[in-house]
Queue: 2 jobs
Job 1
Amino acid sequence: MKDFPPLDSGRGPTVTDQIFGLLYDRVVNLTLPPGAKLSEIEVAAQMGVSRQPVRDAFYRLSQLGFIQIRPQRATTVTPISEEAVLQAYFIRTALEESCIRVATERLTDDHFDALAHLLDLQAREIEAGNRTGFHALDDQFHHDICAYAGLEFVWTLVKENKGHMDRARYLSLSYGADTAFAEHGQILDALRRRDAGAAVAAIRQHLSRIEGIIARLRVDQPQVFG
């Protein structure tokens, strides 16, 4: 099992939230791949906490379908579910298409400049081959559009539902980051022109790539699917 760092006991997220967040990220970025075993006792010991917050974090992850808890047997990371990925895609597309329409009306030149700066940072991460860094900036790009439009709650809903989609997308970044980056540029260009139709079309095309990603992963890495 992968080593886990001690937790920061200072002010901030609760212990359970910190454990959940760390495990969530490691499932999404495949540091904890499908089939990986997790021990409540070992995680608690490595992170310097009691077993209860670990148990609570495990339960939250199991509710998302990320891990399977079986009494008297090992807790394991679940395979990627194609059905769960496509459900997340449906929810995310509906939410972000609605948000992008509002964004075309509300975003300012300062907002556009800030988004352009994010694209510059994304380009650097691609050049450095840093999938984790690019993934974080990808999320920030989508988050900031929602936030600048005054609809940050939309991103909260997206984030609650997109985890399964992220697992598949992360695997694709080794060959698909350049495409994702180019599509971010198309989204920003449509926003700058305040062309709602073009912005919706761009975000729809961007998110729909998940279907092609699944098809390719089915061939290249079939072992990650259930």
Job 2
Amino acid sequence: MAGDMIFERELSFSRLTVRLERLGGDWAVLLSGGHSPHIGCTVLAVPRPSLTGDGSLSVTSSVLNVTGHKDERLCRFLAETVCRKKNAVTVCCGGFHEDGITEAQIREVIMAVEEIGGSV
């Protein structure tokens, strides 16, 4: 579809893929990576006027996590970022899993997701 995007990042230890697909006026985001990609989290982000009344845009998010999974930070960031940038209802689902991942590798994944969010 026109407007669809795929972002791939080679990490020092794995690969991360983020796909965005336009669905009418909305966006679907699929995050996957590591040696065992999965659905660990789903975030629905809905744009709305800020409660400050200053005319700015804010986002209300609803989150579903699979028990024991830690993918919310990644999915929430992408859902809310796309929602704000596109002023559109956005859902992000997916997960990144790498056995024995270190704190430094987790930071690398987060930085890659933030970089992708900046490119949307």
